[in-house]
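Hi V.,

Quick status before I head out on leave. The structure for the redesign project is tokenized and pasted below; the design run finished overnight.
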């Protein structure tokens, strides 16, 4: 990578293995805190012991309305908001607004980093403005241990079990090298870093989250959809005081359900979105720019929605929908995870084939797929939101690869396809020419 190429293709952050930023960036550490003076003291001591140049580190304690005075050592900034319940998103954003660094590091007050944490976690965001890195959060019982006890030596004999769901996810994905549209679930806000540029572009944390859990996943999802590069950095270790306290392990069903319901509204990705209900925001949008006959339009729209029941189909100006259906709209194409621009009327005869092609856009290096018929004539173009956002950011398509595929499950249709053959289920592709 050179200064003229501030990206990697797809999520291939491993192409930067061994590359060190020069010069090192200024790093702002935002420590979210609420009424944990002993834990905060330990975390601030650990930050003072980092091997990163002191003059390039800014620490901001962002307090969520603690009932008592918050004490910080000289050189550590402090911002506070009123106590109006759990407002982790808002307090993190408050800390960012008070900071000046090019790379942002988020820690919780009860999560103390080892000396090499900042250097390891900020390397990729310093090299790639699109990088979102997540460290390794380990667990220990620090009861009775002085806050200035050095890490990691102080954890000897005090280690607690790491969450298996995270450990397995990182192992199976090559430390998120093989991330996809659902990998936001493995980005933990207590050990998170990103560039200020990306944070500002995606709008920071959603302050409407006012209960424990989910705000980091929602932020990570938005970042990924904006073209972010996800990476787990196992060498960036921070120690959480006590076992995991989270709905994500399923121990608190009510809390887990509340989080799942909220994310189902905000993240319309298969596996997160509802199975039958229509999501608030579409996951897939299909735009038909042509003005076909009534029969061809019916066949196109019906076959598209049979393949993608929760999609939105956008018709061209002046084209009336074949039937009243809230999924068929006119106007601008929604900002969906995947957009299929159809250049002509088609019938999807093999839904599994086209669903598989769309699924491939969730991961890997391909961001745009041109669909052609066997004769090479264009049928349409599939494009991921990630590819669109990254191309807009850098003014080039180089951040994702473009592929051309002969569509075996999508066929062009004539002006008067045999609708009775389609609805009756007895016609082959030749019935629709």
């Amino acid at each position: 990578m050179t200064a003229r190429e501030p990206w990697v293709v797809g999520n291939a952050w491993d192409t930067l293995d061994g590359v060190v930023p020069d010069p090192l960036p200024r790093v702002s550490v935002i420590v979210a805190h609420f009424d944990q003076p002993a834990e905060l003291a330990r975390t601030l001591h650990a930050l003072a012991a980092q091997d990163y140049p002191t003059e390039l580190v800014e620490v901001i304690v962002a307090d969520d309305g603690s009932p008592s005075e918050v004490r910080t050592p000289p050189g550590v900034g402090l911002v506070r908001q009123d106590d109006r319940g759990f407002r982790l998103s808002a307090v993190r954003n408050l800390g960012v607004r008070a900071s000046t660094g090019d790379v942002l590091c988020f820690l919780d007050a009860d999560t103390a980093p080892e000396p090499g944490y900042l250097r390891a976690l900020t390397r990729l965001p310093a090299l790639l403005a699109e990088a979102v890195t997540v460290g390794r959060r380990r667990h220990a019982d620090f009861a009775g241990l002085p806050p200035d006890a050095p890490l990691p030596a102080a954890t000897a004999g005090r280690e607690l079990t790491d969450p298996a769901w995270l450990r397995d996810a990182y192992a199976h994905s090559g430390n998120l090298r093989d991330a996809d549209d659902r990998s936001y679930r493995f980005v933990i806000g207590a050990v998170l870093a990103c560039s200020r540029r990306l944070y500002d572009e995606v709008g920071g944390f959603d302050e409407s989250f006012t209960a424990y859990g989910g705000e980091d996943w929602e932020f990570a999802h938005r970042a990924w959809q904006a073209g972010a590069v996800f990476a787990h950095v196992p060498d960036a270790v921070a120690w959480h005081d006590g076992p995991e306290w989270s709905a994500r392990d399923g121990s608190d069903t009510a809390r887990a359900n509340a989080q799942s319901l909220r994310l189902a509204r905000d993240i319309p990705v298969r596996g997160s979105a509802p199975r039958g209900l229509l999501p608030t925001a579409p996951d897939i949008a299909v735009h038909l720019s042509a003005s076909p006959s009534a029969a061809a339009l019916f066949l196109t729209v019906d076959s598209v929605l049979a393949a993608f029941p929760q999609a939105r189909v956008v018709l061209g100006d002046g084209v009336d929908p074949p039937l009243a259906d809230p999924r068929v709209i006119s106007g601008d194409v929604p900002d969906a995870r995947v957009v299929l621009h159809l250049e002509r009327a088609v019938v999807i005869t093999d839904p599994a084939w086209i669903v598989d092609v769309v699924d491939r856009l969730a991961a890997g290096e391909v961001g745009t797929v041109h669909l052609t018929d066997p004769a090479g004539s264009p049928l349409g173009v599939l494009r991921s939101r990630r590819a669109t956002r990254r191309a807009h950011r850098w003014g080039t398509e180089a951040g994702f690869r473009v592929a051309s595929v002969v569509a075996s499950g999508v066929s062009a249709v004539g002006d008067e396809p045999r609708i009775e053959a389609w609805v009756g289920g007895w016609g082959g592709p030749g019935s629709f020419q």
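Above is the designed sequence. The radius of gyration is 25 Å.

G. will cover questions while I'm gone.

Best,
W.
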